[in-house]
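Anyone up for a design puzzle?
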């Protein structure tokens, strides 16, 4: 294993590498904490190329923290649509209100205060405090884990408390106290451009001479991880009901996936569901006169970080006099695109036409 005593050389080499390879990203044009915050929250679970248009969209609509706090959460959720992990948007809106109410709209400038905001954990607090305020707090993300584990030959699994502690300590020793923001962004850029997960460019790497994993020919083995838990299967049967003019939707309110997003009425189970008529009757006051036409079901599998959703969408056409459960919200079909909906439903609606059934 390499010794950490050469850490300042490693740091210098990272900063040197960064001078020539740094990516020109829109949030790097200034150190404004509001912009850095938006970018860091987006990038937590999103690739940079996918995140950039969302960064612009959010910044255009909410140029400052006040405008975000003053807007209804629904508006941010709608802008977020397609990015997934919506708790990021919910927390962001909550934190914007915290900044306005507790800090008079001025972004808190220390790691300690940043970490008190909703949705800001160790990573994000370190990123904002170092990039915007010059505080020497090292970030540890997937890129940092990968580079440090390979370079130093660290085998502690990164998805354990011990691993997180060890890597954080090492990153904290490496950080340049004078340029902490550049150091943090350098190590992340290095991980995503050069020391990549599957095809690292070791031939041109300035660290390969001292890299433990490279010297052993085991770069691909790093970082070490404990096997992930099996994903939980969930089964959703959605009813896409229409009378030709309207549809019926509801807002998810439980503390569960997609909280506050809108969806079609559904039955949820942990085992496969047969699309039987009695489920539909729960929503329709279907007496013998009611005309109900059930369309062909469509199955869509949607993989999330901890779950696999097996969704079945069932188009249902009723006549205009039928009564649909009062707890559902009736909306014109033309208004559906104004509501924030999960990506699974968005995908289904893009590829299918459930409302074209004719009685
Ligand atoms: N990934 C997330 N935030 C980043 C940043 N500020 N620089 C480089 N990569 C990142």
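Challenge accepted. My sequence:
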């Amino acid at each position: 294993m390499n010794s950490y005593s050469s850490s300042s050389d490693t740091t210098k080499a990272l900063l040197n590498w960064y001078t020539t390879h740094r990516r020109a990203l829109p949030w790097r044009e200034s150190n404004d904490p509001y912009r850095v915050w938006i970018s860091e929250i987006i990038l937590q679970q999103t690739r940079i190329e996918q995140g950039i248009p969302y960064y612009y969209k959010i910044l255009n609509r909410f140029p400052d923290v006040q405008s975000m706090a003053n807007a209804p959460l629904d508006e941010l959720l709608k802008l977020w649509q397609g990015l997934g992990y919506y708790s990021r948007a919910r927390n962001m809106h909550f934190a914007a209100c915290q900044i306005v109410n507790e800090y008079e709209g001025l972004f808190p400038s220390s790691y300690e205060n940043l970490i008190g905001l909703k949705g800001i954990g160790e990573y994000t607090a370190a990123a904002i405090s170092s990039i915007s305020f010059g505080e020497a707090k090292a970030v540890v993300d997937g890129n940092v884990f990968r580079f440090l584990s390979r370079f130093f030959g660290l085998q502690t699994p990164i998805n354990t408390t011990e691993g997180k502690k060890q890597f954080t300590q090492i990153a904290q020793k490496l950080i340049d106290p004078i340029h902490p923001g550049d150091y943090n962004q350098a190590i992340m850029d290095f991980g995503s451009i050069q020391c990549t997960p599957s095809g690292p460019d070791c031939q041109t790497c300035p660290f390969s001479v001292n890299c433990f994993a490279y010297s052993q020919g085991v770069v691909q083995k790093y970082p070490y991880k404990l096997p992930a838990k099996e994903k939980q299967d969930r089964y959703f049967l959605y009813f896409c009901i229409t009378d030709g003019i309207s549809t019926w939707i509801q807002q998810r309110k439980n503390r569960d996936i997609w909280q506050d997003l809108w969806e079609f009425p559904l039955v949820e189970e942990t085992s496969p569901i047969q699309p039987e008529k009695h489920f539909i009757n729960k929503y329709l006051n279907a007496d013998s006169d009611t005309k109900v036409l059930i369309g062909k079901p469509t199955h869509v599998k949607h993989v999330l970080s901890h779950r696999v959703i097996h969704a079945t969408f069932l188009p249902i056409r009723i006549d205009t006099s039928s009564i649909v459960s009062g707890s559902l919200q009736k909306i014109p079909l033309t208004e559906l695109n104004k509501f924030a909906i999960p990506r699974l439903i968005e995908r289904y609606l893009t590829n299918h036409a459930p409302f074209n059934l004719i009685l």
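A detail worth pointing out: DSSP finds 14 helices and eight strands in the chain.
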